[in-house]
Amino acid sequence: MQIHLSRSDERPLYVQIMDGVRRGLVRGTLRPEDPLPSVRDLASELRVNPRTVSQAYAELERDGVVQVRHGKGTFVAPEVRPDQRERPRLAKQVARRALADASRNGLVLEELLEALREIGERESPGDDTKEDGR
Amino acid sequence: MTDATVERTPAFRAVWREQLHVVGLSIQREVVIAAALLGLFCLAGVVLARFPALLALMGEGSLADFRLDPAEPGLGLIGVFAALLLPLIVWKGERPFGDTPIWSLPVDHRRHALTKVAVGWVWLMVILGGAFLCVVLATLAGGGALGADEVRQLITDGAAFSDGEAGATRGVAWTTPWWEWVQPFTAATAAYMLASALLLATAYPYRWAVVLYVLGAVPFLVLEFFEIDSLQRGVDLFAWFIGAEDFVRFVRLPTGEFARGWLSLPTMGMWIASAAFWISVGVACVVAASSRVRDH
Amino acid sequence: MTATTTSALPVNLGDGPFAVSTAGLVKRYGSSTALNGVDLQLPEHAVYVLVGPNGAGKSTLLRTLMGLVRRHAGDVNVLGADPGLEGGHVRGRIGYVPEDHRFGYSWLTVGQLLEHHAVYYPSWDPAYARRLTEMYDVDPDKKCHTLSKGQSRRVQLILALAHRPPLLLLDEPTDGLDHVVRDATLSILSEHLADSPTTVLISTHRVYEVEPLVDHVGVLSDGRLLGQLPRGDLRGSLLRYSADVPERWSLPKEIGGRVVNRRGRAREIEWTVWGDRDEVTRGLSQAGATVREVASLSVDEAAIALFSGEEAGS
């Protein structure tokens, strides 16, 4: 599970960690019953306060995404179904970011939707060498 | 682990032992050099004593009747000199002022400073003892003897006597008393304490050392121009205590010859009084100076 | 404890429990005042970053907590004791990295220096010290006076961490370290926090590096605290509002928050405002500004906004 924390990201660090776990579920790299790294290990790897990781894990447990088993560590909950909740949730997050970006640039929703449709049909992910920018 | 149960400050004995170790390390280089020099000197003495032919070559007299007299002017003075310099080496790199790391340690500042001074004193005694032992062994190895054993000519004309004056003397038998062996250690102790106090009291010990030295010369200057018996006596006693004076003067006997005469012979009372005075002053100065580094 | 805040940001963290607290702390050096009535509050087990320009008094504050500096007025409580009265006791519970990277005992080797400290700190963990020495790639046989600035810093960090103190006072801990070692230090600190319950106070210019560890922020300028609050509150309530405004428009008195800083040209303006996000956005919109973006700030950006705001008198 690869989590990258971005300093320029608006979201608090613990939310970024939570989203990283959800991303793993959506992409399939994390499956039900998979163990998550220990609080100590993940905190050390990400160079964050261990409490931040604890907070993320606690919130995820509250959402039913993971289970903290005392003495053994934290595991992905066995009954998790990424498609039902995580996919739409992540999609909304991406949309929110895009809308904020649009607003900053003075664009309206319709303009953004039009551009998305046009580019989404033409380009493949990761291909950003077109002249008209993104 | 709950913090209440964890001991976070060191026991005094551990600190004492560690300071002994660390101060020992800091003086190591200087002591080794001094020991080497002393060893060479003693070795030379033994060789010259055992091989009088060499001595004859040098034009000197004979060492056959050499007796080690601890009250010989110069011997005690070397110890005092070393004692004055020792605090500089003890506190090497740990200036008592400023943000030196020694003050970040988990010990009361004042007590730690006093501990360090005390540890330095212990090492001073060990070093002087070792030096003394070396000289004693060299004396014995060279065939000499320990302590004076002679008839001293006591000048009967009074204390105010200058070299070369005519006078009468009276013979007094003299052997080196036990406390003359201890005398240099007490003088060194007093000197060490005073120097340590100076280091603790001020951030500019060298400047103040010069000032004090100049001030200390004042009584001597005064005596050049005025005859004040009590001051003279005090100065003489001080000079004797630090090993710079032995009250020997040259007397012109009625026969016209010159002989070595003693103005007075040292007494145990003199020693106890001087040692008690100067050591008390020294220790008091150290304790007072240590209040400058106490916790704020 | 001073009740009024002439500062833009809150400075009171409530009732505690606090590992460290000062009340009206004053320290003068001759005619200049280094600390001018500081009410520091360091919550237990918090990681608190103290930011401020050079000469703000950060190092003086840390030295006062260590009992290395005599204060002129005010109360200081460090882990339940006054460092001015019980210096030894307090220092035994602190791991301190001073601003200065020089050592005393420069003629000792690193190994001897570590052993020396092991005697003075009964809670010294020799296995941990050894592990840190390896991680930091420090040669125990090297004499201290031959160490480079970066190597000295690493040794100072080992000395501070190895006895697992309940309080860490770190004055520019990453100063003099190269990128790789700086990164390793953050990882080491992170693990240290996971292994031992510790309260940490980091004083630094380079907040960027330690920011992910931090949960409280204190802003010190000219010997006073401009703000002292949880990182989350700072992130949530000190925001940068970018807006388009019509010609000859001026900001009304009340917009639902306190303006800390302002930047921008005629029709495009940025304000840094302390206040509730929705309220301020509404206030600005109602006043005729078109709010394009509301962004939270890094601690660095927040500090800069506060300092330049201070200078401008806004």
CATH-level-4 superfamily name of the largest domain in chain C: P-loop containing nucleotide triphosphate hydrolases
Number of strands of chain C: 14
Approximate strand percentage of chain C? 25-35%
Based on Cα principal axes, name the global outline of chain B.
Answer: globular
Strand order of the largest sheet of chain C: 6-7-8-4-9-10
Using the 3D structure, state the CATH architecture of the largest domain in chain C.
3-Layer(aba) Sandwich
Structural class of chain B: mainly alpha
Main attributes of the structure:
heterotrimer, A: 134 residues, mainly alpha, Arc Repressor Mutant, subunit A, 2 domains, two-stranded antiparallel sheet, 2 strands, 54% helix, elongated, B: 296 residues, two-stranded parallel sheet, two-stranded antiparallel ribbon, 8 helices
In short:
By secondary structure, chain A is mainly alpha-helical. Chain A has helices at 13-27, 39-46, 50-62, 82-104, 109-122, and strands at 66-69, 73-76.
Describe this structure in words.
Chain A folds into 2 domains: 13-76, Winged helix-like DNA-binding domain superfamily/Winged helix DNA-binding domain (Arc Repressor Mutant, subunit A); 82-122. In chain A, a hairpin with a 3-residue loop joins strand 1 and strand 2 (73-76). Chain A is 54% helix and 6% strand. Chain A has 134 residues and is mostly helical. The two termini of chain A are 28 Å apart. Chain A is elongated. In chain A, helix 1 crosses helix 3 (50-62), helix 1 crosses helix 4 (82-104) and helix 2 (39-46) crosses helix 3 (50-62). Chain B has helices spanning 12-50, 52-58, 75-90, 109-141, 179-201, 205-225, 229-241, 268-290, and strands spanning 67-68, 145-146, 149-155, 169-175, 248-252, 258-262. In chain B, a hairpin with a 5-residue loop joins strand 5 and strand 6 (258-262). In chain B, helix 3 runs antiparallel to helix 4, helix 3 (75-90) runs parallel beside helix 5 and helix 5 packs parallel to helix 8. Chain B is globular, with a radius of gyration of 23 Å. The mean pLDDT of chain B is 86. Chain C is an alpha/beta fold and 314 residues long. Chain C folds into 2 domains: 18-230, Rossmann fold; 233-312, Alpha-Beta Plaits (2-Layer Sandwich). Chain C is 32% helix and 29% strand. The radius of gyration of chain C is 22 Å and the shape is elongated. In chain C, 47% of the residues are buried. Classes of the chains: A mainly alpha (134), B mainly alpha (296), C alpha/beta (314). The interface between A and C is medium-sized, with 22 and 24 residues.
